[in-house]
Amino acid sequence: MLPFDFDYYRPETLQEAVELFQYLDQHGKQPFIFSGGTELITLGRIDLAFTEAVIDIKDIAEFNVIQLGGEHLVLGSTLSLSKVEEANPFPLLTKTASEVADHTAREKITLGGNICARIFYRETVLPFLLADSQVLIIGPNGKKIVPINDIFQEELRLEKGEFLVQIATENRFIRAPFYTVKRRQQWETGYPLITIAAVNIEGRIRVAISGLCPFPFRSIGVEEALNNRGQSWEARVDAAISVLPQPILEDVEGSSEYRLFVLRNLFSDLLAALDRV
Predict the structure, then answer these.
(1) 135, part of any domain
(2) Distance CA 26, CA 205 (A)
(3) Which one of 130, 168, 231, 259 has the fewest CB atoms closer than 10 angstroms to its CB?
(4) Helical H segments across the chain, by residue range
């Protein structure tokens, strides 16, 4: 149970959702966008989230698409992680999403909910950062399509009243050789230390990381270091470690030193998997 009451709304169209958010916000209701509900329930119980109005967007058709055709795969933001896993339209995304929480939770957690969450892991954004995916956003000023790497800077930087509707990814990234691993301290379903995802596109490795810093990221500097084939693997890994963003997390899951130790081994493993593909 949540320790506060709220009004519940279930709009049927994108425009209705946008207008409803504006109306509720203007009336001081602090509207909360609801697609899976896990964050509201989890944070609301410990007084870290509050709202007087919930806007449930799960019934809006555009949020629920899985469309593979032409040159792009299009995924709606309210698809649950379990639906993504079952459909398996993007193997790198499937593998990365399949290790988020447990199966029961993945039936509720959505793509958009995970990407926009306040928890710092947000692993499902990693494949989209690697693939230069495009995001469809709707808000008070209408629709716009933006490269995810332009709008995701430590978090998805939406303006107030904007909704993440869909994510489009080129087919060539969907078919690319990939490597993805989640390392935990000890438990099979515990919080991760580090999740790493990588692809080889036209002979170059791209890499994105979650759990190392207080935000998921893709680093061009790290990629440049790992792709410097004029050096040994050890030198390339050392160079990649030297250009990591800061700060490195230090918490009950693991110290910053231990995280860097784990990452060093993961970098070596991904080079073994992708360097000669």
Answers:
(1) yes
(2) 47
(3) 231
(4) 14-26, 38-45, 81-87, 91-97, 103-106, 111-115, 125-130, 148-151, 171-174, 220-226, 233-242, 256-274
SS3 120: coil
**Same domain flag for 73 and 51:** no
Q: Please choose, from the candidates 253, 156, 258, 262, the residue with its C-alpha nearest in 3D space to the C-alpha of residue 209.
A: 262
Q: Are residues 65 and 135 in the same domain?
A: yes
Domain extent, residue 197, equals 177-274
Peptide bond between residue 247 and the one before it cis (omega within 30 degrees of 0): yes
List residues bridging with 176 in a β-sheet: none
Amino acid at the residue 155: E
Answer yes or no: are the C-beta atoms of 42 and 119 closer than 8 Å: no
17 vs 137: CA distance, rounded Å: 13
- Entry pTM: 0.93
Contact 76, 88 (CB under 8 A): no
Cα 261 to chain centroid distance, Å, stands at 24
Structural contact between residues 139 and 152, judged by C-beta atoms closer than 8 angstroms: no
Mean pLDDT by 10 residues, the chain (277 residues): 72 96 92 69 51 89 93 96 95 92 86 90 96 98 97 95 97 96 72 92 97 96 97 97 96 92 97 90
Examine the domain organization and report whether 199 and 218 are in the same domain: yes
